[in-house]
TrEMBL record, chain A:
Species the sequence originates in: Flagellimonas aquimarina
Origin superkingdom: Bacteria
Protein name listed in UniProt: Fe-S cluster assembly protein SufB
InterPro entries noted in UniProt: Fe-S_cluster_assembly_SufBD (IPR055346), SUF_FeS_clus_asmbl_SufB (IPR010231), SUF_FeS_clus_asmbl_SufBD_core (IPR000825), SUF_FeS_clus_asmbl_SufBD_sf (IPR037284), SufBD_N (IPR045595)
UniProt cross-references to PANTHER family, sorted A to Z: FES CLUSTER ASSEMBLY PROTEIN SUF, UPF0051 PROTEIN ABCI8, CHLOROPLASTIC-RELATED
Domain SUF system FeS cluster assembly SufBD core span(s) in chain numbering: 211-452
Family affiliation: Belongs to the iron-sulfur cluster assembly SufBD family.
Pfam families: SUFBD_core (PF01458), SufBD_N (PF19295)
One GO term (biological process): iron-sulfur cluster assembly
All residue ranges annotated as the SUF system FeS cluster assembly SufBD N-terminal domain in the record: 48-203
TrEMBL record, chain B:
Organism: Flagellimonas aquimarina
UniProt protein name: Fe-S cluster assembly protein SufD
Domain SUF system FeS cluster assembly SufBD N-terminal: 23-168
SUF system FeS cluster assembly SufBD core domain segment(s): 175-405
Gene Ontology biological process terms from the UniProt entry: iron-sulfur cluster assembly
Length: 481, 438
């Protein structure tokens, strides 16, 4: 065998976060702390109309009275909300300039991340709305999209240009007082993406956003709102990375999806925030509220690959309000070293003949804790609701943990719900089989993990699937001897 | 006065009737402190999310039963498994009834907790086992511990097997308008010994009864324990059953819970595996109607390598009934080669019935096979059609299928007469005429 277990372990532990570099861009940063004044200042900085400022303040006032939730199966030092700077914008950002004018340092950063903007623009036919530390820097393909009537822009611009849409939909799926982090986000969100697909339009390309925390001591609070009008279709990609930093950084995003009658939204995430080093120091706190609302005959599909963050707390959910609506959730969560993830989904069946599918694959290695937490709720009027859930966990070593907390609540006799979960390890015989055919252990593990995750990887758009596969390999290298 | 205050003041009265110098009383005092601090659990607590005790706390229960009541055996015979000869420990309104009981000290001890807690010859055993596996933290268990005085005491020494199964029967006569009972049982099965126990709580009238029972079971190396709980009570009777089981190497403990009635039933069944190569079996059949509520809360804690656990709970919920299943499996770091299986299948047959289920796994070891499956659904349309096409009316065909659905849990029942009895109850509940001998 090429490696011994010890060697592999060592290599893994010393493996530095590949994206752990810090780009020196002059930032315009607010003083630390949170108060009504800061909320007002953010709103002012963004040049927001009054209704938006009031909306933020209302959320802030409720948030002040809320307590940080403790029910999740994660343990961490609570962030000090007064020690975070709530606004940080790269100074050189100017929304009016074209792609060519973008700060070369920023472009270099994206190049290191492997998402060269112009290359994507030309080769991959992907429109990218890049968010660096809260402000959208470059928006591509705006023109092509505009021809179809598709609105895809930073949410701060949407508030200016399409206030009627933002006003109508924002906060309807995730109310501003939904939970502690959603309320915080509602009060202080600095930017994010806004997307509107008009009636009957099929978005011709994958829409994509890359988030990245750059400045130290800043929290990233982005807000995404995707509206698919009747009969439309959109596939939306979201990717995240953050540079290495010692103090824990907070990330509290809110994503709202609205699928009107006969519409379909496919939302894919690759989350690769800095997970902390091998001693569990540093890393991003990822507390995200994601929820979609399905009207009649519509469909929302969440796909996520979670490999980063020190602490993850994330439950992309579907409210199946309309009859015949469909909700899907495909997830791979990988934890290594001291990472903790508590992730899953909620499928709320309200309409008749609603269907939901949950496929969750958890992989834990090192001393990490990986939890699946899900809720399937069938209300009394949801005739013929159907759910299938499958949660599989893979454990590597006996210092990590895998947990499953599925909640299933049925109030209708026609409901059909199936849930199954398994926990296992990579079979020695499987590795032996690969070794026998000349595949070394490292490769064999990658192969087996990829096979284990295949059901979910298959759901990702092509560009992401390749990257996700690579991420899985990087995250787990050397976990098993 | 609410029930908690009443219980706390009753404890002072209770102290007048027990030996305060006995070491057990220290355990009781600690326990009442815990209950005073925590009180009755509320729905805000994760473990009680789906079961509310608010209604119970509003009832003015009598804490101490009055004098012994007399009952004729012929009137209550149907509540016993009378087809076979058994040892019997019978309580009427919480008080031991010697003429209905049949205890023994012949090789094994099948007798009373009150004797074990007071007589010197049991002191050694009590010191080692009493309140050792029961939670010192969970409020209702500590409430029972505080008032622990009476119940069944069963001690099976090394290599012994009692001549016949043991029945523990609690009867409530309804002489009190509302009665609260807190039986405390201790079952110790030594190395290579065996025992079969059937437990039943039965109210004889429509008066309110609340039973908060705690049973501790210790299974030593190679021990073999079968415990059957028959719950088919009146709609005014509530039961909170807390069972704690500690298992040692190569022992097998099987607990079957048959829930067919009662207003509110909560089963807290906790298995702690403290050895290797053992098997824990938890099985349950629940068939409910009216406004009945049953909450099964199971915990299997695998703390040592090479062990197995098998859980299989089936439920059929009709009318306005509610069913809850919350099964938790914990596998510790060192518990490698654990095989833990959990299955929970439910059928809702009414629009107003509800089922809440939460099968939970917490796994810290990698070389394990753990799985849980959970379904909520209807009967197989094809099977129904098949039966109908052979001339069986739809109603009977439905009943027959449900009967088959529930029936396979009974395969592991090792007392044939009990199996027949349970089969009859199930058939009865579902309105199937079983025209064949089971």
């Amino acid at each position: 065998m090429a490696y011994t277990e010890e060697e592999l372990k060592k290599e893994l532990e010393t493996k530095e976060y590949e994206y752990g570099f810090y780009t020196d861009i002059e930032s315009d940063t607010f003083p630390k702390g949170l108060s009504e004044d800061i909320v007002r200042a953010i709103s002012k900085k963004k040049n927001e109309p009054e209704w938006m400022t009031d909306w933020r303040l209302e959320a802030f006032r409720v948030w002040e009275k809320m307590e940080e939730p403790e029910w999740a199966n994660v343990h961490y030092e609570k962030p000090d909300f007064q020690a975070i700077s709530y606004y940080s914008a790269p100074k050189s950002a100017d929304p009016n300039k074209s792609l060519e004018d973008v700060d070369p340092d920023l472009l270099e950063m994206y190049r290191k991340l492997g998402i060269s903007v112009d290359e994507q623009k030309r080769l991959q036919n992907v429109a990218v709305d890049i968010v660096v530390d809260s402000v959208s820097v470059a928006t591509t393909f705006k023109k092509t999209l505009a021809e179809k009537g598709i609105i895809f822009m930073p949410i701060s611009e949407a508030i200016q240009e399409h206030p009627e849409l933002v006003k109508k939909y924002m906060g309807t799926v995730v109310p501003k007082t939904d939970n502690f982090y959603a309320a915080l986000n509602s009060a202080v969100f600095t930017d994010g993406s806004f997307c509107y697909i008009p009636k009957g339009v099929k978005c011709p390309m994958e829409l994509s956003t890359y988030f990245r925390i750059n400045e130290g001591g800043t929290g990233q609070f982005e807000r995404t709102l995707v509206i698919a009008d009747e009969g439309s279709y959109v596939s939306y990609l979201e990717g995240c990375t953050a540079p290495s930093r010692d103090e824990n950084q907070l990330h509290a995003a809110v994503v709202e999806l609205i699928a009107l009658d006969d519409a379909e939204i496919k939302y894919s995430t690759v989350q690769n925030w800095y997970p902390g080093n091998s001693e569990g120091k540093g890393g991003v706190y990822n507390f995200v509220t994601k929820r979609g609302l399905c009207e009649t005959n519509s469909k929302i599909s969440w796909t996520q690959v979670e490999t980063g963050s020190a602490v993850t707390w994330k439950y992309p959910s579907c409210v199946l309000k309309g009859n015949n609506s469909v909700g899907e959730f495909y997830s791979i969560a990988v934890t290594n070293n001291f990472q903790q993830a508590d992730t899953g989904t909620k499928m709320i069946h309200l309409g008749k003949n609603t269907k939901s599918t949950i496929i969750s694959k958890g992989i834990s290695a090192g001393q990490s804790q990986n939890s699946y937490r899900g809720l399937v709720q069938v209300n009394s009027r949801a005739e013929n609701a159907r759910n299938f859930s499958q949660c599989d966990s893979l454990l590597m070593g006996n210092r990590c943990g895998a947990h499953t907390f599925p909640y299933i609540e049925a109030k209708n006799k026609t409901a059909q719900i199936e849930h199954e979960a398994t926990t296992s390890k990579i079979g020695e015989d499987q590795i032996f089989y690969c070794n026998q055919r000349g595949i070394d252990t490292e490769k064999a593990i990658a192969l087996i993990v990829n096979g284990f995750s295949k059901e979910v990887l298959n759901k990702l758009p092509m560009e992401f699937a390749v990257e996700a596969q690579k991420l899985l390999e990087i995250s787990l290298e050397g976990s098993v001897g | 006065m609410d029930l908690k205050d009443k219980l706390l003041s009753s404890f002072l009265a209770f102290e007048n009737n027990v030996d305060l110098d006995h070491p057990v009383h220290e355990v009781r005092s600690e326990a009442i402190k815990n209950f005073e601090e925590k009180g009755f659990p509320s729905k805000k607590e994760e473990a009680w999310k789906y079961t509310s005790l608010n209604g119970i706390q509003k009832v003015d229960f009598s804490i101490f039963p009055k004098k012994e009541n007399t009952l004729e055996y012929k009137d209550i015979k149907k509540y016993f498994l009378h087809e076979i000869d058994t040892y019997k420990i019978v309580f009427i309104d919480g008080v031991y009834s010697s003429y209905l009981s049949e205890t023994t000290h012949d090789g094994v001890d099948v007798c009373l907790m009150s004797a074990a807690l007071t007589k010197p010859q049991y002191k050694q055993v009590i010191d080692v086992y009493f309140n050792k596996v029961a939670s010192k933290d969970e409020s209702l268990t500590t409430l029972n511990t505080a008032f622990s005085k009476e119940g069944a005491y069963i001690y099976i020494p090394k290599n012994k097997v009692p001549k016949k199964p043991i029945q523990i029967v609690h009867l409530a006569t309804g002489n009190e308008a509302a009665l609260m009972l807190q039986p405390r049982n201790l079952v110790i099965v030594e190395e290579n010994a065996e025992v079969q126990i059937i437990e039943r709580h039965q109210s004889l009238t429509g008066n309110e009864v609340l039973t908060n029972s705690v049973t501790e079971i210790f299974a030593a190396k190679d021990a073999n324990v079968d415990y059957y709980k028959v719950q088919n009570d009146e709609n005014t009777a509530s039961l909170i059953d807390n069972t704690y089981i500690s298992q040692k190497d190569k022992s097998i403990v099987r607990v079957h819970t048959f829930s067919f009635g009662g207003k509110l039933t909560r089963n807290n069944l906790n298995f702690y595996q403290n050895g290797e190569y053992m098997d824990s079996v938890l099985k349950g059949v629940t068939i409910l109607g009216e406004k009945q509520h049953v909450d099964h809360h199971t915990l299997v804690h695998h703390a040592q390598p090479n062990c197995e656990s098998h859980q299989d709970y089936k439920g059929i919920f009709g009318e306005k009934s509610t069913g809850v299943f919350n099964g938790k499996i914990i596998v510790d770091k060192i518990a490698q080669k654990t095989n833990a299986f959990q299955q929970n299948n439910n059928v809702l047959i009414s629009d107003k019935a509800t089922i809440n289920t939460k099968p939970q796994l917490e796994i810290f070891a990698d070389d394990v096979k753990c799985s849980h499956g959970c379904t909520i659904g209807q009967l197989d349309e094809d099977a129904l059609f098949y039966l109908q096409s052979r001339g069986i009316p739809k109603k009977e065909a439905t009943a027959l299928l449900m009967y088959a659905f529930a029936n396979n849990v009974l395969e592991s029942v090792r007392i044939p007469e009990l199996k027949t009895r349970i089969n009859k109850i199930i058939a009865n509940k579902l309105g199937v005429r079983v025209g064949f001998e089971l």
